[in-house]
Design a protein that fits this description.
Structural class: mainly alpha
Helix content: 55-70%
Number of strands: 2
Order of helices and strands: HHHHHHHHHEEHHHH
Number of helices: 13
Radius of gyration: 30 Å
Number of domains: 2
Shape: elongated
Oligomer: single chain
Distance between the termini: 23 Å
Strand order of the largest sheet: 1-2
C-alpha cells in the first residue's frame, strides 16, 4: 500500500486512452498491492516446509529455499500482469458502433470495454479478477513440479533434509568424512591424555598419557581414520535404503505443500477468482485504485 500511496501522488503525463505511463503505473500498482497477500501465502508455505525437514530450520532459512520461485515471480510478474490487463481485456479507445466516443469516456465512467481509465473504473470488478488470476496462475505455474523454479527449490529442500542441524553452519570437513569419522577424530584429539572414550562404531579408544599414537592400546591417527571410515561405510550401507525413502517422502510432502498455493491466495484475498461480484474483499483496494486510475486523462 505504501507504493500505491506514492503512485497516487504522481502526476501522469497526458495520454490518449490508457497507454504509456498509465499502463506502467496501473500495472505496478496492482503488483505492489499483491506484495502482502503473496507474503502471507509464502509464510504459510515456509512454515510447512520447515516442519517437513527433519532438522526444522528457521522460517527465515526456509524462505531461502523458496527464492527460486520468488525470484522467477519477480522476473515475470510485470509482463504477466500487463499482458493480462492490456491488451488482453482493456485495449484501444472507446468508440461506439458509429465511431463516436460514448459519454463517460475517457473519464470518469465508460460503459464500453476499452482501454480508457473510465472503462477500467466502470468494469473494475473484472479488472480486480484479472489482477488476482494473473497473480495466482503465475505463482501456481512457477510452483508446479517440472518448472525450473520448482525443481531448483526441491533440490534445496532435499539437500537441507539430508543434513543434521549442526551441519547447516559447519559443512566443510563433513563433506570429506562422514559424521562418524569426524566424531572419531575429535574424540582421539581430545583424549591424548585421557583414559579413553567410546567412539561410535569402534568401542573404547584409550589414551596412554603419552600422546596420540603411542603406548599400549592407543590408536594411531591415520589407521584410526581408516578404521572409522570402514565402520562408517558399513553403517551407511546398512542405512542406505533409508535415505532414498526419506528423499521420496520429502518430495511427496513438498508437492502437497506447494499445491496449496491457490487455496492460500484465495484465503489471503478472502474469496475466489471465479468472477463473483462481491469476491476478493481483501484484494480489491477499490477506492484507492479507482482514484489512482482516474488521475490519468
Amino acid at each position: 500500500m505504501r507504493l500505491l500511496t506514492l503512485l497516487l501522488l504522481a502526476v501522469p503525463a497526458t495520454v490518449s486512452a490508457c497507454e504509456g505511463d498509465c499502463i506502467v503505473g496501473t500495472t505496478n500498482a496492482w503488483l505492489s498491492n499483491y506484495t502482502a497477500p503473496i507474503q502471507t501465502a509464502m509464510e504459510s508455505i515456509a512454515t510447512q516446509i520447515s516442519r517437513l525437514i527433519p532438522s526444522h530450520p528457521s522460517i527465515d532459512t526456509t524462505f531461502n529455499y523458496l527464492n527460486p520461485i520468488i525470484t522467477a515471480y519477480h522476473d515475470q510478474s510485470y509482463q504477466n500482469m500487463e499482458n493480462g490487463i492490456f491488451p488482453s481485456y482493456f485495449h484501444g479507445k472507446c468508440l461506439d458502433k458509429n465511431g463516436n466516443e460514448p459519454a463517460g469516456c475517457p473519464n470518469p465512467d465508460c460503459p464500453v470495454v476499452c482501454g480508457t481509465p473510465g472503462s477500467m473504473v466502470h468494469f473494475f470488478p473484472k479488472l480486480r479478477y484479472i489482477a488476482f488470476n494473473q497473480t495466482l496462475h503465475l505463482l501456481e505455474t512457477l510452483s508446479s513440479p517440472g518448472s525450473p523454479s520448482y525443481d531448483r527449490m526441491e533440490e534445496l529442500v532435499l539437500d537441507a533434509s539430508q543434513r543434521p542441524p549442526d551441519e547447516r553452519r559447519r559443512r566443510g570437513f563433513s563433506r570429506v568424512f562422514s559424521r562418524s569419522v569426524t566424531d572419531g577424530i575429535n574424540v582421539m584429539q581430545n583424549n591424548k591424555n585421557g583414559a579413553g572414550s567410546l567412539v561410535p562404531g569402534l568401542g573404547l579408544v584409550s589414551g596412554s598419557g603419552s600422546g596420540l599414537g603411542s603406548g599400549p592400546g592407543s590408536l594411531d591417527l591415520i589407521s584410526g581414520v581408516e578404521e572409522l571410515a570402514a565402520a562408517s561405510s558399513s553403517s551407511s550401507n546398512m542405512l542406505a535404503p533409508a535415505l532414498p525413502k526419506r528423499a521420496q517422502d520429502i518430495k511427496a510432502g513438498l508437492k502437497t505443500i506447494m499445491a496449496q498455493i491457490p487455496a492460500l491466495m484465495e484465503e489471503a484475498c478472502g474469496g475466489t477468482g471465479d468472477g463473483e461480484k462481491n469476491g476478493l474483499p481483501h484484494c480489491s483496494w477499490e477506492v484507492a485504485m479507482k482514484e489512482y486510475i482516474l488521475t490519468f486523462p
